[in-house]
Amino acid sequence: MAGMSKPLRCENGCKLTKQQRKCIQTLRHHYLVCPRRDSRWKVIRDAENEMRRLEEAEMRRLDEEEMGRLDEEAHAISDEEDEEEEEMVGVERRLSDLKMNRRVERQARKEWEKTMKKEKLQKEFKAEDDVIALKKGINKHLSQFGFLRINTILGQTMT
Predict the structure, then answer these.
(1) Average pLDDT of span 48-67
(2) Which of 76, 93, 144, 159 is exposed most, by the fewest CB atoms within 10 A?
(3) Is 109 within the bounds of a domain?
């Protein structure tokens, strides 16, 4: 124990009292509240705070640059999406126009077919009317000469 002496000064250079030298607890307390510690470590703490502040500023700048780049990309993507959407709207319009044109064509074709059927039926009815009138005329002339009616000759019954 002769070689181990109690410290007279703390790490920061403060003189220690006898009480602080005797009791480890009071010695630890002194190290925690040492007035010189604050002045000596203040420079280190300020430097650390400055480094931390600079790092945070750099991170914020990088984040802002990244956000700016991401915003530009987002705008470019949204512009592309808008263009694609406009193209899709144009395609949908053209498609609806084509569908409408097909519908109109189909309707026009149906109407044309109806009119053609009507005309065909009218022609057939007219032809039948002509045939009936012709038969009546022939029958009239044949009956004048004493022949049978044309309908019975042709095997048809006339009403």
Answers:
(1) 90
(2) 159
(3) yes
